[in-house]
Amino acid sequence: MDKIETYRKIIFETLEEKASLKYANAPSLFRQFIVSRDRNTFILLALGWVGKRYRHSFVYHVEIKEGKVCIHADNTDVGIASVFVDRGIPPQDIILTFLPNFAQIESGFAVAS
């Protein structure tokens, strides 16, 4: 399996697992996992009502671009980049695009060009 296909598999399986988790503190929320047709963009959304407020937000937004895994959104305490590293994606192939350039340099991951 080539590198990009391996990354697709790791990202898909990881976010699919995350999508199956339930919110203990907000049982009416659900997660929706979206994958682009070319399998290079992955989005996990949180949807539903919390009290009297409707919630619709990104949990994760990940894209494979130019051989790198670009994490555009990670709105969790877990740090999905570390999970990807544990599952086989090297840190030098992960870009935390939601961070400013100076913070990317300090992150230990790749830096957007």
Which helices and strands occur, and which strands form pairs?
Layout: H1 3-19, E1 30-35, E2 41-50, E3 53-65, E4 68-74, H2 80-86, E5 94-96, H3 101-107
Parallel strand pairs: 4-5
Antiparallel strand pairs: 1-2, 2-3, 3-4
User: Strand fraction band?
Assistant: 25-35%
Q: Based on DSSP secondary structure assignment, what is the total number of beta strands?
A: 5
Q: Distance between the terminal alpha carbons, to the nearest Å?
A: 27 Å
Strand order of the largest sheet: 1-2-3-4-5
Structural class, please?
alpha+beta
Tally of DSSP helical segments: 3
CATH architecture: 2-Layer Sandwich
Identify low-pLDDT runs. Answer: none
Oligomer: single chain
Question: Strand-and-helix sequence, N→C?
Answer: HEEEEHEH
CATH superfamily: XisI-like
Structure characterization notes:
With 113 residues, this protein is of the alpha+beta class. It is 27% helix and 35% strand. It has 3 helices and 5 strands; from the N terminus they run H-E-E-E-E-H-E-H. The chain has a 5-stranded mixed sheet with strand order 1-2-3-4-5, with helices on one face. Helix 2 links the parallel strand 4 (68-74) and strand 5. The longest helix is centred in the N-terminal third of the chain and has 17 residues, at 3-19. The chain is globular and about 45 Å long. The model has no long low-confidence stretch (mean pLDDT 94).
